[in-house]
Structures are given as structure tokens and as C-alpha cells.
Amino acid sequence: MSKESEDLREWLINNFDAVEDSIKNECKKWSEEHGIKECKTIKSNELDIIDVDNLGDNIAAALKVGLLNVISTYQDDGVD
User: Fold this and answer.
1) Is the pLDDT of residue 80 over 90?
2) Contact by Cβ (8 Å): 2, 74
3) How is the chain split into domains, by residue range?
4) Which superkingdom (predicted)?
5) Residue 4: helix, strand or coil by DSSP?
């Protein structure tokens, strides 16, 4: 793995909370735009703020895993 790839991998591991916060903020904005502000009853089929928050967490986790997988499969072609 090249130094650049290793640096990116290290940044993602150490600083992914910044990306995660951005995703959560966008989910929060979306929920406010669509009037999703409170928790619904368990039997409700409607989205609530907890669903949206969990969705943000799931998106961030999947993105992190995907990015780290891409970096780990990167082959250094030896070109400097």
C-alpha cells in the first residue's frame, strides 16, 4: 500500500467522526424539512426522529467500511 493510501486510511480511522457528523446533520435537516420531529409509538408505520438518526448511523458505518475496503485493495503500481 502506498504512503498516500496509508495516510488516507489512517485519516479515516482517526477522523471519521467529522464525516459521520456531516451525514447526521444532513439527516437532521432532511427530517426537519419533512416534519419528522418526535418519536412515534412502536406500532406506528411512520418514520420518527430515531429512525432518521439510526439511518444516519448506518449510512456512516457503511461508508466507512466501504472506503476502508477500497483503500485496502489498492495496488501500488510502483510508479513514482
Assistant:
1) no
2) yes
3) 3-73
4) Bacteria
5) helix
Write down the residue that cell numbers 435537516 correspond to: 29
The DSSP string of 5-70 is HHHHHHHHHHHHHHHHHHHHHHHHHHHHHTT--SPPPTT--S--HHHHHHHHHHHHHHHHHHHHHH
Question: Which has more confidence, 48 or 41?
Answer: 48
> Over 90: is that where the pLDDT of 63 sits?
yes
Q: From residue 32, give the alpha-carbon distance in Å to each of 7, 26, 46, 71.
A: 36, 10, 15, 35
Exposed / middle / buried, residue 65 (Cβ in 10 Å: 0-12, 13-18, 19+): exposed
